[in-house]
Amino acid sequence: MASKKTKPLAPWAVRQLRRIRSVYAAGAALWGTGALLEASERPGSRQMWVFVLLLVVFASLLAATFACLRRHETAIRFPLSATVRESR
């Protein structure tokens, strides 16, 4: 498997990711609540599936944001780990 060199993000990008993370979390919570309420009233309806689709979208965006911030923190903590792997 090829090694990837992970560079730290710019400070403005980290701030933006941290801000948008709360928006994605709120969106996932709202769409999840809507899906549960709609499923209890009309299970299997088209509107319920739209709620579920939007829940999946927001949860995926939230997971991608967490992964990006995790990679950034790893690049900050271990800046030489990528270069050590490349020299092998």
Write the layout of secondary structure elements.
Blueprint: H1 11-41, H2 46-77, H3 81-87
Helix pairs in contact: 1-2
The computed structural class is mainly alpha
Secondary structure tally, helices: 3
Could you tell me the mean pLDDT? 86
Cα-atom Rg, whole angstroms?
A: 19 Å
Largest sheet at a glance? none
- Give start-end ranges of low-pLDDT stretches: none
Shape: elongated
What's the count of strands?
Answer: 0
Give the amount of beta strand, in percent: under 5%
Query: What sequence of helices (H) and strands (E) makes up the elements?
Result: HHH
The helix content is over 70%
What is the CA-CA span between the terminal residues? 12 Å
Describe what you observe in this structure.
This protein has 88 residues and is mostly helical. It has helices at residues 11-41, 46-77, 81-87. The longest helix is centred in the last third of the chain and has 32 residues, at 46-77.
Give the key terms.
mainly alpha, 88 residues
